[in-house]
Design brief:
The complex is a heterodimer of chains A (about 230) and B (about 425).
Chain A (H helix, E strand, L loop, with lengths): L1 E12 L2 E13 L4 E5 L6 H8 L7 E6 L2 E2 L5 H11 E4 L11 H11 L4 H14 L15 H14 L4 E5 L7 H16 L3 E5 L3 H4 L4 E6 L2 E7 L10
Parallel strand pairs in A: 3-8, 3-9, 6-7, 7-8
Antiparallel strand pairs in A: 1-2, 1-4, 4-5, 9-10
Chain B lengths: L3 H12 L2 H36 L6 E6 L17 E2 H10 L3 E10 L8 E3 L2 E3 L2 E5 L3 H4 L3 E5 L4 H6 L3 E5 H7 L10 E4 L2 E10 L7 H4 L2 E5 H7 L5 E2 L1 E6 L5 H15 L10 E5 H44 L1 H9 L4 H41 L12 H26 L4 H6 L2
Parallel strand pairs in B: 6-11, 8-10
Antiparallel strand pairs in B: 1-13, 1-14, 2-12, 3-6, 3-13, 4-5, 4-9, 7-10, 8-11, 9-10
The chains are: A alpha/beta (about 230), B alpha+beta (about 425).
The structure holds adenosine-5'-diphosphate and magnesium ion.
Magnesium ion (MG) binds next to helix 1 of chain A.
Chain lengths: ~230, ~425
């Protein structure tokens, strides 16, 4: 599903440049649930953003579901993001003047799905995250956990090939975190490929594989026995 | 592209800070309002001055004699002369594209002695010996009876058409005018008609104090032999009298043995040229109106552009999120452009509407208080409104262009990180 080879990325800061990713080799199969771990500043978000086509790599290659990702213009990148990828952010990033349902329906709008079908699908996904009754509420009327569940519903609405989540539980207390992880595990159970950036070991243990980043390289990549979140909910 | 969701979003964005939106809209509103009012005022002035020209055939020149200033062919300078009737014929023969050539003789004049008597009343009036065609070149409306006709000319009838001003001078209020006799320098003329000249200019009063008699009767009654004092010449619609003028003047100079370079001997005046001069003045006024209006409008547009930039900046993060969800750059640009055009057009329409109401009000006031000198029926044409709308769409595009560009300039990842 994802295949990256010898990936390098550095940021230019004035005259000197910061080499963040120093040759990453890594691949993900369909249906995996991968945690990307590492200390703060180790380049986890950078890696995820490159995988999400929000940022560009300097060197190396990236193939997503057989499609080489390079030299994309913005229109094409937008198209791929829309069709292949779903994003979940630490700070939810819901659009605050749109209702929960409108937020979930957005990726479908960009796919030119008709209004009615869009609303039906959005409701269906809201139901899956248990927020059907909150469909007409604005984000600021929702709790943090609810917001993140709306964000997950939004990411899943366009039925992406890969779900990318950057510290999805970073802003939540542990109980709510486990609820969100429970949801993510259920989505993964349906066969969806998911990558999660986290620095919390208990969250990482709820995945099926842990990739450890340090100083811009992968120092460890291991399969783990998944801890089900449902038992803590 | 223009679906319900897009419109909903435009309204949401523009109403989210309504006060700011209204302030911004005011700039455009003001610009278009000033443009419309300036154009309407210019049009009012133009209508007013043009109506002073009345229905006069503007393709007309007038020509009269003065004394010579150069000796020629043995004749001395300072000589007084008159056109002759044969000159009229030769002008007609030599210039085929003339519509009317009307010779005229004149008696009396400003401040002259009383020359017209009726019973115990007397007055000083301009008396003209004219051909029937003059009514087309110096238009008047016949208020009773008739004007001179060709059999009057042929039979040298002693008839007269008098102005409304003459009538009030010589007659009592309810007295019968048609069929009465007046004495012009001792010669009796039968009054067959009265006229009124339409003219808002300063000579309005003077124009009503004239008496018209047949050209031939004039010659006979006042012993003018075959002299002609004055001519009114109108060209056919296709050709310009200004172009023919030189040739006509040269021809009569030749016939009257006047030095070709004698500039003073033949006086002439060309309505067409005059009209064109006025016309170009209005052209200049229109230009100024557009110039000022468009400049004010431009500052309004810059205001819109500025606000759109701020809106885009405020929405940087949102735009980043939308791009992460897969919205295409052109769609974001379109959104910003449509917001800008919508704002510009709505406020512009408001300006046009208020401008139209204002003009309507002015017209009502003018109607109620009677005509004002040199100002009549201020208005803007549909063409102006349409072009104002086009200017608005264009301005909206212009105002939105830079903000739209800046909306997609930031990379999505930086946009999402923005606070
Ligand atoms: N846009 C950027 N410009 C410059 N430096 C950046 C940028 N994004 C991240 N960095 C730097 O790159 C390093 C890795 O950042 P990041 O990938 O966000 O780390 P993590 O998510 O693992 O905490 C950090 O030192 C960070 O300061
Ligand atoms: Mg990070």
């Amino acid at each position: 599903m994802i295949e990256i080879k010898d990936l390098h990325k550095s940021y230019k800061m004035g005259s000197n440049s910061l080499h963040v990713l120093k040759g990453i080799n890594f691949s993900v199969e369909e249906g995996e649930l991968v945690a990307i771990m590492g200390s703060s500043g180790s380049g986890k978000s950078t890696l995820l953003n490159i995988l999400g086509m929000l940022d560009e790599l300097d060197e190396g290659s990236y193939v997503l579901d057989g499609v080489p990702i390079k030299n994309l213009n913005e229109t094409k990148a937008a198209n791929y993001r829309n069709k292949f990828l779903g994003f979940v952010f630490q700070s939810f990033n819901l659009i605050n003047y749109k209702s929960a349902m409108e937020n979930v329906a957005l990726p479908l709008y960009y796919q030119k799905v008709g209004r009615k079908e869009r609303q039906e699908k959005a409701l269906k996904y809201l139901e899956q995250v248990g927020l059907k009754e909150w469909a007409t509420h604005l984000p600021n009327e929702l709790s943090g956990g609810q917001k993140q569940r709306v964000a997950i519903a939004r990411a899943m609405a366009a039925e992406p090939k890969v779900l990318l989540a950057d510290e999805p539980t970073g802003a939540l207390d542990s109980k709510t975190s486990y609820e969100v992880m429970d949801l993510i595990q259920k989505i993964n159970d349906q066969g969806n490929t998911i990558l999660i950036v986290t620095h919390e070991p208990d969250i990482a243990d709820m995945c099926k594989r842990i990739v450890h980043l340090k100083d811009g390289v992968i120092i460890e990549d291991k399969k783990v026995e998944q801890v089900r979140a449902a038992q803590y909910v | 592209m223009f679906d319900k969701d897009r419109w909903k979003e435009i309204i949401e964005v523009l109403t989210s800070n309504l006060f700011r939106t209204i302030l911004t809209a005011f700039g455009v509103f003001w610009g278009i309002l000033i443009l419309i009012i300036l154009l309407a005022a210019g049009k009012g002035l133009e209508n007013g001055i043009k109506s002073d020209f009345g229905d006069i055939a503007t393709n007309t020149m007038f020509m009269w004699t003065r004394s010579t200033t150069k000796p020629y062919k043995g004749l001395p300078k300072g000589r007084n002369f008159r056109f002759k009737l044969e000159d009229v014929t030769s002008i007609r023969d030599n210039f085929s594209n003339l519509r009317f050539v009307s010779p005229r003789n004149q008696l009396g004049g400003f401040g002259g002695a009383n020359n017209v008597i009726r019973g115990i009343n007397a007055g000083a009036y301009n008396v003209y010996g004219d051909y029937p065609e003059i009514i087309n070149q110096d238009p008047m409306s016949i208020t009773a009876g008739r004007f001179i006709n060709h059999s009057d000319i042929k039979e040298k009838r002693k008839i007269a058409i008098i102005g409304e001003g003459v009538k009030t001078g010589l007659y009592k209020k309810d007295e019968k005018v048609i069929g009465s006799y007046i004495k012009i320098q001792g010669v009796s003329f039968l009054v067959v008609g009265t006229y009124k000249k339409k003219s808002n200019g300063g000579d309005g009063e003077e124009g009503q104090k004239e008496i018209y008699v047949p050209f031939t009767s004039f010659l006979q009654a006042f012993n003018r032999a075959d002299n002609v004092g004055w001519m009114a010449i109108t060209a056919n619609d296709g050709s310009s009298i200004s172009d023919l003028k030189e040739g006509i003047v040269a021809l009569v100079k030749e016939k009257r043995k006047v030095h070709p370079k004698d500039k003073r001997a033949v006086g002439h005046f060309d309505l067409y040229e005059q009209y064109n001069r006025v016309e170009s003045l209005f052209g200049a006024m229109r230009f100024i109106a557009y110039f000022v209006g468009v400049l004010v409008l431009l500052s309004g547009i810059i205001g819109v552009s500025n606000i759109m930039l701020i809106v885009v900046k405020e929405r940087t993060k949102e735009i980043g999120i939308r791009r992460a969800l897969g919205e295409k750059p052109w769609s974001i640009k379109l959104q910003i452009l449509m917001e800008s055009i919508f704002l510009t057009i709505t406020s512009g329409m408001a300006g046009i509407t208020v401008g139209a109401l204002f003009i309507y009000g002015i017209n009502k006031v003018l109607e109620m208080n009677g005509p004002v000198d040199m100002f009549l029926n201020p208005s803007v044409s549909l063409g102006v409104v349409v072009s104002a709308l086009l200017i608005l769409v264009f301005s909206g595009l212009l105002a939105g262009f830079i903000p739209a560009q800046s909306a997609i300039k930031t990379r999505p990842i930086d946009a999402i990180r923005a606070e």
